[in-house]
User: Fold this.
Amino acid sequence: MKKILLMIIAALAAAAPALMGAGPGERADSLMRASLGRLECRADSGDPEAMFRLANVLETGYGPLRPDSAKALRLYGEAADKGYAPALNYLGFKLFNGDGVSPDPDRGLSLIEKAALQGDPKGAANLGWLLVSGRKVVPDPEKAVYWLSKAADAGLPVAMMQLAAIYTEGLPPVAPDTLRAERLLMRAAKAGQHQADMRLRDLMARKWMDLSADSAVSLGARLYASDGAPCSAVELFRIAAAKGSARAEALLGEAFATGRGVEYDHDASVNAFYRAATMGNHPAQYILAELLDLFPDALADILGSGNNRSDLAETNAAYWYARAAEGGIADGRSAIEALIHEPTPVRESQ
Assistant:
């Protein structure tokens, strides 16, 4: 809804010069009214997309336009009568659920199915979900998987999640398929579905235990950096760290320091970076050096507070800068780049 309205406002940017004499509130109100006027003209001319957009706005109201649910419903119906797939799906779902209209599940399902047959992803997802739920519909898991797959292939994250749930447990006669569920959850997580990340972690944690340290940290770094699954990534880092991966320790330090995929924890971050640095991970050595530059006592809790602690080389930033330089790390940016994007761990002790 908001996206549609923002598009409407943006389309009227050229009209702004004529409103230079008005205050900010008046200009915004005038732009909105002009935009709505143009949309109404398009709707009056029979444009089904414009009818649908205008109905969206009228359903809740926006700015100077007051809600008009009756007119919105009429416009949805007219757009659906013209075969506009989003309107068919939207009106169908309202009729199926009795949302602001008298319930008519049979007609609602028919409209949703028409939208799905026209290739509307939301229509396909809704149809698939209804066929899974069996609510007012005869359940048909195989047909549900077909339509949810159509919606998932079109890039709809909610369909990916629903399909993954089916493959996780199986829904006779559809057999469980962990590999498909994993791929779907990864796609949904990359599309911004936080719950997909959590489900992916829960689904795969036991299987990931069988990965080598290098494989676990490599997959974790990919999920952490670009695939939108930081919680799953942290689980992989923990697994790899337990198997002796210095890079995994350093990545855990990064996660604790930023609160990405795990709650922020300064002490846990320092401990993880220190473990990675002592194991020979050069990015961690540089990060630890920067930390000691700012907080000379950062390692006090780790190394203890005895009289000889200040004589330890490990308490000096210069010591860790020199170690990091041996691995070609000379600044913070290169340290983070090497840490997250290196395809294999950086010279780790065995």
